[in-house]
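Weekly puzzle thread! Below is a chain. First person to post its structure in token form gets bragging rights.
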Amino acid sequence: MTQPKPPIVGIDLGTTYSLVSVFNAGEPMVLPNAIGETLTPSAVSVLPDGSIVVGAAAKARATTHPEYTAVGFKRDMGTSRLIQLGGKSFKPQELSALVLGALKKDAEVFLGHPIEEAVVTVPAYFGELQRQATRDAGAIAGLRVDRIVNEPTAAALAYGLHQRARDVKAVVLDLGGGTFDVTVLEIIEGVVEVQATSGDLRLGGDDFDLALAELIVSKLDGAQLNVVRDNRKTWARLLAASESAKRKLSSAASTRIALAELELEPGTTRSFELELRLEEVEAVWAALLDRVRLPITRALADAKLKPGSVDEVLLVGGSTRLPCFVKLATHVFNRLPLRTLPPDEAVAMGAAVQAALKEDNIAVSDMVVTDVAPFSMGIATVSAMGSHAITGFFTPILERGTVIPASRVERFSTVHDRQSKVKLEVFQGERSLCRDNQHLGELTISVPVGPAGKEAIDVRFTYDLNGILEVEATTVSDGKKAAVVLTQADGRLSEQDLAEAQKRMQGLKLHPRDALPNTTALSRADALYAELTGDRRATLARGIASFHAALESQDPTTIQVAREQLIEMTNWLRG
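Winning reply:
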């Protein structure tokens, strides 16, 4: 009997949280992780025994053991940065691979099947380097990632699944932990057509936390921001307190935070309690909200659409719960935005729909999705200014907003007498000078020798739905061709690098999955213990001690009861 083909899962690989989903019985379903939650923090930590823990336990350790923990590494995808964790070095792709590997295992346990392939989402404004880094992370994790889909496009797919009978012009505003995306789209009889996209790769909920942490420091007597930020543990605690306050201010006009034994200066600790009012917090967030407006304006302009012509505004991403963000969206579009889908899960749900489309699932046979290139791509050219030749100008071949997949060709000519070769340098961006854009790679082609301008070269850019760019050059006189698929540049992994990364990952000692509920409960309790004082701290200490005693008993029932009691106590004391 032929074995059923393993399902393709959808993965939202987020800056703050990641999720895995599958299309089942005509609907996308977000799957639970080892501790029964759907949101897996994009966090990696090295434990004292040298093993690696991923997810909620790692996120909790970001407060208590910041030097052993990494968060926010999605922002470094596509770079050559190395991240040090307790004596171990990781590339951003490797840390992302550990998160993908954890999600892969969660899906395999839930579905009872091995998982080999995934559709992975990325910010719409991710460039080609970041997309390739995401594919590399999938390969390291043992996942084939043939299809990359933009996060707001994925959210639109999940939304469009239930809107196929309608014609609607919509804007998706996706404010996640690390990035902000705007996508203008139209749904017509099941066809989801993306018309424009824009965004900011350095604007997300983490930036709101950062601004709030700086406000808190300004309220602490004698605190100097540069000294506090240099203390990793103190700064990690302030960021955790800021994130908690941000969540509370999403539904309250004020909140109080307590900071116990905070080290503001080396060797000196003090405790603080202070109130944060929503209006003063929003004042420090004003500059971030101003940055939200620019991508919205650009996306609407590219789509040739006025705000009043938009039928619906969809909010995606946990940070869109901020009242000030909702207020801004309402003001820009003169209508209340919608949360038709769970903001944290919408992208993952759309990834599952895209997986179903890739599998030719009959439930979505009437759905079609188109996307657009988020950036212009072109080559470096020379401009003649009188007797002078000015180099380094950027000439786009494939403009941003072009519906993809797409293929575009432009003709260029030689610039020097007796020129025998032409080097085509490929860039991505919107600036007039190449030096201000992102260098993607290069291609060299031999040309017949002759006077300047005699030989013409046709340069073709072919760009697919997964963000893979192929560059082809053809000499017009003799038809000779040279082509390259741009897969190597700074921050990318070569085939050898990829093989070595896979070998390193296989050699890592991963924390046992079945121990994660216990490790997570303890890590969360330890993180809260650092913030409490007095009787509340003593109460939690007793709960932690009871759980340690239960662990020593090695009795599964005793451990489960004690763990549930510790979780309940932690949640109660956190308030």
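Puzzle host: Confirmed. Bonus trivia for everyone else. The first strand starts at residue 9 and ends at 12.
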